[in-house]
Amino acid sequence: MQLIQQTPDLTAYLAEDEVIDHGHPLVQETAEALWLASGDAYSYAKVAFEFVRDTIPHSADSGDPRVSWRASDVLRTRNGICYAKSHALVALLRARSIPAGLCYQLLADDDGSNLAVHGLIALRLPGAANWVRQDPRGNKPGVDAQFSLDAERLAFPVRPELGEVDYPELYAAPHPAPLAALQGSADREELWRNLPPEIGKFPVG
Fold it and tell me: Residue limits of the Transglutaminase-like domain (predicted)?
């Protein structure tokens, strides 16, 4: 998919903020350990993806009521929904100077009801011309996301006939709507009520 950068400045996709806190010691330690298990940018990106996908359960699958949103907290608690796991993966990639950003889909139930925004990431390896989406949500029966730089192998290929959408925007920082849902929810039950049904274009300011 052709993604549209929120900002043309590639360094924005390496920046640290309150959410993507890749300067945090736990993020740095995790990145160092994963780098030692890989050794080059491609291998590291794959290992980091699989680490977040497989060792941090999606809280809807695990039943964990806690809500995490900051990348370091996702790594510390080993818990989060799609947005939070995406924050963690972006932080791990940026910790090794791999540009990475956040992107979103609009998904629905099989009958087209209950539209909700799903979060995933895109990365750009050194020397690559294009961004490539990856989905670290976590696999389960019926969901089989894999790291791929060729054909996308996402958790949820969209079904346009049900109103599902791939949003083309690539954000350097989390979109305010999903982030507000995370930060404003005391537990996962409240978070489920607060999930945004859609997102707009690039936030202003």
Answer: 38-136
